[in-house]
Design the sequence.
């Protein structure tokens, strides 16, 4: 055994332990912590982050990675050994580019700015956030400069979430989506889909029981998963065999159920990473877009699918007999697939969601490039809402202040949501080409074929390949919006056809 | 501001963050973690412990503490400044006495040995644990040698949990307890107290609701406390304003309720430490015996008190109407105070509990001193059970294998349980002398006077004083078993009197 490689594993193992520990602190904070625990928790998280950052940027780690170059070359590209050295070096090179004081400034500002965002929303006053946003943009520009030279100043931000992705690749995809999706909104509107069956009184306990019933059918095993209550749903994994889903059930809607299906997609990805990768940086989903492709796949492609509901609908009726006993399956399914512009991104359907994202991507680029003065951001936001979605936000809390993402400095993250939609259908088409029509299986309550194909082609690899390499291997080509557009057109026909019939 | 002192605060703050983080990992493991998360969690805990140990024994910390001697002397003994330097130095001196490799051996053995204990219990075979126990004793002897010279080899072990306490102080106290308690068992037995009212069917939800009703009356505020389910009840605090109680409600008994009252005592102590001490080693209970004195006080002196139940019993009857509607308060109260030897320590009442402890203390000393061959431990255990409690364990799982405490290497811990009983009544007598009879207040549902007295005299000080200093200040003297003996004699008369009447 190579002693340098063993030393690398030891260092990366400790780093993973700290990162997963930070995740435990975060999960507890969001789901369990009493309110007054917040101050001490902030200190605990800051200390763990500081120590992790020290280990992450230790010069000894850099030297070790250099020493391991011949070792890496002796091993196959996709071997555990070569992949671990390669990914660790890439993470290290990225980490040391950013000076410690800039990192500290960014993290301090993020927490102040987040509180300013909460205040701005309360006061419905963009002016409260403005100075923080100005400073955020300034710090993010300094961050970008750490990665010079670059083709586009947006590239280093995108690279945080989508390693290797370039802005120039995204632009034509988003242009194509705008061209295809904007007209769809009008066509859907004409169908006047009735979604009143999704509103009513749904007791939380029954929602939870039914959600677990679906998730367990899909592959959630209680020995490795939990589902807890939170304000904003998320998934976090403390190892491939400790997966925490969170959701928020509201008694007047089934949003909590749908968010369970979404978070399951994130969870099933982490759960099926090769267990040999545990305690290494290979042991997680390869990028935000790939992760989102899985949450979207299980929420939308599986979870809003008629065949899936042919299997589950009788059990849903049993869970809420007063509500669904007299609602035909097809009515429920159409309601689940209704398309209608909403002011808030998080309430959006499959068609309008990507348009919400494109608005934000375009505004982020304009802010970063200096073409858009931050003073004009609220108006620019509303103008794009009118242009792409045909609606005017009722006030700033439903307009420019609706997301936390700019106040918390996560510029560059938004596009990965829409790219997730694109990737999800690319993978779906390849899966069906390989294993045959999935609907027949879903109707019988069988979801293992899809999960196994995804595990074999995506999940198990963790971060072994770059997102681009993985997409090439699994979907046979680069990012391509056409499968997603075709999928929405098919859905348009199905739902409109059924609504008209 | 003294820069050396600021540096000390920074170092101690980080250390506290790591220790509290380790506590979060432990709490999650016991209350929430899916079973398959165990391996990764063990690694996470080991890494945090290793880093904490490095910070704890850093030579720079030792130098800093030396530099701060004049600063310490400039400040009053009980000032925050002098206390922090003093306690940090005492912790540091203790930590560096033990070589890192011995600490690592101890912690590795503890986890292997704990698993061996579980196996030994399953196979009802002491032989499975024996080699681990032999090794544990050997390592503990090496640990003791790190603290030479000592008066008694048991002293350094006791000192882990009860700083400054000497074995020679405990012996006469335990002798006095044996002399007083052993005969009480027979007297109680003659009273033939009927405790059948404590058995029945008690739905978990109702137990939880009633337990919270009591705890909130006693001072549990939801903004800073939680109550969760676990296998073995415990309390852990992540800061003075983040207190986690755990319990285990069984449908056939009220043990879970009583364990809530017990853990509340631990929690109320941590909750009321001076908030200025947060993120310093002063911010916790001063010793195991003092901590146990508080869990015992709230469980027994308050929680098994007739006046307390005059207030709560109507609400207990409301919570379990089928069960308690026709049971008179006095019958319930007598049942709650029944004395009867049990095989298992954790099931013991107020009289026999201390005898269980004395058995273990005597055996630990004999093992450590070499007078007792480990091969003879099971027989020696049973012999003492017959001698002090008049019963013979049915098998090794109810005999020598009933506790995890030897397998997990916590020799020296047991005595603090019985000392907690002793201290609890010493404090109680002083509290009543200062604020008047507490029963009148309890009957009216008022518990703040007691809590405030304890906060003022014990809780708020954290680790400012040594246990001996604190007891002297609060109870006016050293450890004294007489108040505890008097209390049990009074209870004997009350319960027997009532039973006879």
Sequence:
């Amino acid at each position: 055994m190579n002693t340098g490689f063993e030393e690398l594993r030891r260092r990366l193992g400790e780093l993973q332990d700290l990162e997963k520990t930070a995740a435990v602190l975060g999960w507890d904070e969001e789901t369990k912590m009493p309110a007054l625990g917040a101050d001490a928790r902030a200190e605990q998280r800051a200390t763990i982050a500081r120590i992790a950052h020290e280990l992450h940027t230790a010069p000894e780690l850099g030297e070790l990675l250099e020493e391991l170059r011949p070792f890496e070359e002796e091993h196959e590209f996709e071997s555990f050994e070569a992949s671990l050295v390669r990914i660790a070096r890439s993470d290290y090179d990225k980490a040391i580019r950013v000076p410690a004081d800039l990192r500290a400034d960014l993290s301090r500002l993020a927490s102040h700015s987040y509180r300013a965002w909460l205040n701005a929303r309360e006061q419905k006053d963009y002016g409260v956030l403005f100075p923080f946003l100005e400073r955020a943009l300034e710090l993010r520009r300094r961050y970008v400069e750490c990665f010079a030279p670059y083709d586009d100043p947006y590239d280093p931000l995108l690279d945080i979430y989508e390693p290797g992705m370039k802005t120039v690749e995204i632009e034509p995809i988003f242009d194509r989506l705008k061209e295809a999706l904007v007209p769809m909104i009008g066509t859907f509107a004409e169908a006047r889909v009735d979604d009143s069956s999704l509103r009513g009184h749904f007791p939380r306990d029954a929602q939870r029981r039914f959600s677990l019933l679906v998730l367990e059918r899909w592959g959630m095993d209680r020995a490795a998963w939990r589902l807890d209550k939170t304000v904003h749903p998320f998934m976090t994994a403390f190892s491939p065999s400790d997966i925490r889903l969170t959701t928020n059930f509201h008694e007047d809607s089934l949003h909590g159920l749908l968010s369970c299906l979404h978070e399951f997609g994130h969870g099933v990805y982490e759960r099926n990473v090769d267990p040999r990768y545990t305690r290494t940086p290979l042991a997680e989903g390869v990028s935000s877009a790939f992760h989102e492709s899985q949450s979207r796949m299980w929420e939308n492609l599986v979870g809003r699918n008629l065949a899936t509901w042919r299997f589950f609908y009788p059990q849903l009726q049993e869970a809420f007999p007063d509500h669904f006993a007299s609602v035909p399956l097809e009515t429920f399914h159409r309601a689940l697939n209704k398309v209608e512009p909403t002011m808030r991104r998080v309430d959006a359907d499959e068609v309008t969601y990507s348009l919400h994202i494109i608005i934000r991507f375009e505004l982020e680029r304009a802010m970063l490039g200096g073409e858009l003065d931050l003073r004009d951001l609220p108006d620019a936001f509303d103008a794009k809402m009118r242009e792409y979605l045909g609606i005017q936000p009722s006030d700033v809390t439903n307009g420019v202040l609706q997301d936390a993402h700019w106040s918390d400095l996560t510029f560059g993250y938004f596009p990965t949501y829409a790219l997730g939609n694109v990737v999800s259908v690319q993978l779906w088409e390849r899966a069906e080409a390989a294993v045959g029509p999935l609907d027949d299986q879903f109707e019988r309550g069988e979801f293992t074929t899809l999960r196994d194909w995804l595990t074999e082609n995506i999940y198990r690899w963790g971060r072994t390949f770059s997102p681009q390499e993985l997409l090439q291997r699994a979907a046979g080509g680069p990012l391509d919006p056409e499968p997603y557009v075709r999928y929405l057109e098919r859905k348009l026909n199905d739902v409109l056809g059924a609504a008209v019939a």
